[in-house]
Amino acid sequence: MKKLFLLFAFALFSAGIVSAQVYTEDSKLVNIGIGFGGGYTTGKVGIPPISASFEKGITEKISVGGIAGYAASKYELMGFKSEYSYILLGARGSYHFYNTDKIDGYAGAMLGYNIVSAKVTGLGAAASSSGLAYSGFVGGRYYFSEKLAAFAEIGYGISVLTFGVSFKL
Fold it and tell me: How far apart are CA 119 and CA 21, in angstroms?
């Protein structure tokens, strides 16, 4: 694990010749991802955490945008079936700390609103709950072309680990 971390750190922070940076002040990005792990599921995952976000560069290092996420799960105990759905809506900000012609490394924070609903079959009960949601994250994008990248983020949002694609507009 330590060797993997050192290899990742070396890849992010090693010096190299940069022909063009993939993230700029004028960047506009759409990200679509699927998540794994986290507190937004109970029991069996019905729909894994999915998310979509938009990001706009406001300086050479800082971007802001929004995120929407959804997850659903089911839980069964003693003949009662519970179904849960989670909707996350939020605003995000990122600091782009590493930027080359292929890689964009960033870290940031999210502040949002989490809408949770639950239905219990057998009892005829339903409930909903909403509240403030916040998270921190670290991520990176690898660009295959000028407009298309793969991304990965670790942090606490709609999931702990999110993989997906980014499209530069």
Answer: 48
* Chain segment 115-127, per-residue pLDDT in tens: 989 888 877 788 8
Q: Identify the CATH class of 18-158.
A: mainly beta
**83 half-sphere exposure, CB direction, 13 A CA radius:** 9
Which segments of the chain are extended strands (E)? 28-36, 44-57, 62-77, 80-99, 103-121, 125-143, 148-155, 161-168
Alpha-carbon distances of 50 from 10, 22, 35, 76, 169, rounded to whole Å: 30, 25, 6, 23, 21
pTM recorded for the entire structure = 0.81
Please choose, from the candidates 62, 57, 137, the residue with its C-alpha nearest in 3D space to the C-alpha of residue 94.
62
Structure tokens at 114: 């989490």
Please state, in angstroms and rounded to a whole number, the distance separating the CA atoms of residues 61 and 54.
16
Residue type, 24: T
Residues 6 or more apart in contact with residue 98 via CB below 8 angstroms: 12, 13, 104, 105, 106, 140
pLDDT digits (tens, 9 = 90+) for 2-21: 544 444 444 444 434 444 68
